[in-house]
Design a protein that fits this description.
Layout (H helix, E strand, L loop, with lengths): L6 H11 L3 H22 L2 H4 L3 E2 L6 E2 L6 E7 L22 E11 L3 E4 H5 L5 H31 L3 E5 L9 H12 L7 E5 H4 L7 H4 L1 H10 L5 E2 L2 E6 L2 H4 L5 E7 L2 H4 E16 L2 E14 L5 E7 L2
């Protein structure tokens, strides 16, 4: 959109499209394209497990409910062995473990506004759609992911607790190592770190003598500007209510690579629905996804008290 067009003009053009079936269909298509691009920017779950698109042919009917599921095979364990001079070796009958990923729909609320109220906005209506629809969907998406990750970490005994981070408030590097060791000690590698922006701010508390003169000095002047931390990919989210940071505790997570973690499957990418009756405009956004962690040992967490 040109910067020379005012927000009110954009809104008027938007509403004009809603007065015909062809215009409604075009608005729905444009809204879906806008939402897909924005959703991938803000969802931290999609930064840890890259979404893969699937079709009905890739899925099965569940025996437990009326929905669709995807059955994912888990690589059987194996080992090397010594072979005697007669050429005999140990036998290992391969059994295929697997897990089930259920698919479900995530939808925003159904929003309604009168045509007159929408014309009163001093911002483009696409921003209203973004704030009211997209952010709701991606937060549910991330909430589902972090709930599964937390349960997996606890089930695998991969939780590490700092207790109080001390009077300085900084994150203990020794405890971070303990969290990484939970994965590294099980023939995995911690590849991604996830934390809230409030926990990330604790990095500013590292002094030059703690981290090293060059890095410590740079943190003090420019802040922490790297995409990795301790050699691991760093993902920072502003969803402190999901990751801690606003309550009594904060939590940092680490994950193995996606091949060792699980799958994020998209059956129906985010779509935008809109209709107009008289002067009432209604809209919603929705998607159909399936997300599952197949290896609970691939998740670990670090729990610390809030400063």
């Amino acid at each position: 959109m040109s910067n020379n067009i005012s927000a009110s003009t954009i809104n008027e053009l938007f509403l004009q499209k809603l007065n015909s079936p062809e215009g409604l269909e075009k608005v729905a298509q444009e809204g879906s394209a806008f939402i897909r691009q924005k959703l991938r920017e803000v969802s931290f779950a999609r930064k840890i497990m890259n979404p893969q698109y699937v079709t009905k042919a890739d899925l099965q009917r569940s025996v437990n409910h009326d929905g669709l599921v995807k059955i994912v095979d888990i690589e059987p364990d194996s080992k090397a062995m010594a072979i005697n001079f007669r050429g005999d070796s140990d036998w290992n009958y391969v059994t295929g473990d697997r897990f089930e990923i259920p698919f479900y729909m995530i939808s925003s609320e159904d929003f309604q506004k009168t045509e007159e109220e929408l014309l009163a906005y001093d911002m483009p209506l696409t921003e209203v759609i973004e704030k009211n629809s997209v952010l709701d969907i991606q937060k549910v998406e991330d909430s589902k992911f972090i709930t599964a990750a937390s349960a997996a970490s606890t089930a695998a005994s991969n939780d590490v607790t700092i207790g109080s981070p001390g009077t300085s408030g900084e994150i203990s590097k020794a405890k971070m190592k303990d969290m990484f060791d939970k994965l590294d000690g099980q023939n995995l590698r911690a590849e991604t770190i996830l934390m809230s922006s409030t926990t990330f701010n604790r990095l500013f508390l590292y002094s030059a003598t703690t981290v090293g003169d060059a890095v410590g000095s740079e943190v003090s002047v420019n802040g922490y500007t790297y995409s990795t931390l301790f050699g691991r990919k760093l993902v920072v989210s502003n969803k402190a209510d999901l990751l801690g940071g606003t309550g009594a505790t904060e939590k940092i997570y680490c994950f193995a690579g996606q091949d060792f973690l699980g799958q994020f499957n998209v059956l129906n990418d985010v779509k935008f629905w809109i209709e107009k009756k008289k002067n009432i405009v209604s809209w919603a956004a929705y998607e159909s996804i399936g997300m599952g962690i197949g290896n609970q040992k691939a998740c670990a967490s670090l729990l610390l008290s809030a400063a």
